[in-house]
Amino acid sequence: MILVTGATGTLGKPTVDLLRAAGYSVRSLSRHPAHNSETVVADLSTGIGLQDALAGVTTVVHLASGANARDSQQTRILLDALAAHPVEHLIFMSIVGVDKHSLAYYRDKFLSEHLIAASGIPYTILRATQFHSFVSRLFSAQRWSPVTVVPAFTMQPVAVEEVAERLTALVAAGPSQRVADFAGPEQLSFTALAQQWNSAHSFRRPVWTVPMPGAVGRSFARGDHLSTLPGDGRATFAEYAKAAAGPR
Asked: 247: pLDDT confidence band, cut at 50, 70 and 90?
């Protein structure tokens, strides 16, 4: 039995689908009741319901992601629960660059990695670059703006479905500790990504680039969030933007 935290999220949904298609018994963890027998209600912020959720579980795929310092807090609570319900394999989804980046969320995600590695639980940690959908949210939020404003750095977006495929393969592989990063196939400036998005949606408007100040801006400018090329991802952002725009 596999327990997937964050099962209703952007990455959780395709991962659950692929695991079930591969023949695994999957239990989805959610904070909210669902109208199916495969979902259990538990709260990673408090630990309420976790003991019942872990009953009979052999593998945990930890995809839930708390904001700010809540990520490491939720990881601590999960590890405490696993002390009473040992599992054969804990898979943790992380982000490329958490060991170098100045962003507080990245630093807290790196702390979660340390907690898992020190827990004594057999584990696998996978880092991925940002999803296509993460990048596109910046553009969607400006859909009524006469211009598209973007930060002055480069991204390496990856298809979430491909990350889900990699996670499914890691379940079968067994505990592997830190594995190779999973990154998108290309590195493009945010300006180029915005132009691709606007072109796919037939938006005729300029793209304005603005610098990001401070230590976080310097981390992004250095490319601390990027992996090497070529990445393992296959789908490009242009393909994603075209599919998101729909028929024209």
From this structure: confident
Return d(Cα 140, Cα 143) in angstroms, integer: 5
CATH of domain 2-245: 3.40.50.720
CB neighbour burial string for 151-167, b if at least 16 within 10 angstroms, e if fewer: bebbbbbbbbbbbbbbb
In the beta sheet, which residues pair with residue 123?
A: 90
Quick count: other Cβ atoms within 10 Å of Cβ 43?
A: 16
The residue ranges of every structural domain in the chain are 2-245
The mean pLDDT value of the chain amounts to 94
The number of angstroms, rounded, from the C-alpha of 156 to the middle of its chain's C-alpha atoms is 13
CB 212 within 8 A of CB 154: no
CA 218 to CA 229: how far, in whole Å? 21
Model pTM score? 0.94
The single-letter code of the amino acid at 83 is A
User: Stretch 130-135: mean pLDDT, rounded?
Assistant: 96
